[in-house]
Amino acid sequence: MSSGVAPVGSGAEAQTKASRARRRGRGRAWSGIGFAVLFFAGLLPLGDLLGSFGDSDATFVAYFAKDSNEVGALVGGVGLALAGLAFL
Hints:
mainly alpha; 3 helices
């Protein structure tokens, strides 16, 4: 007396929900990995600046007078911004 139609809440529906849950879990895992990579990649170019906020203004002016330091700070800032987006 089977009509061939799966009843509501059947195994097929449960498998679909489980498949979606696995995909969401993988997406969250990749997002976490991306955050960690981008966070550390953003901090590396900023290494000279970390902990130096008590320095005088002349020290910062001399540091940013070099183009390579300016580019490093820009790259680090972009990396940290992208890490923030990956965290969301």
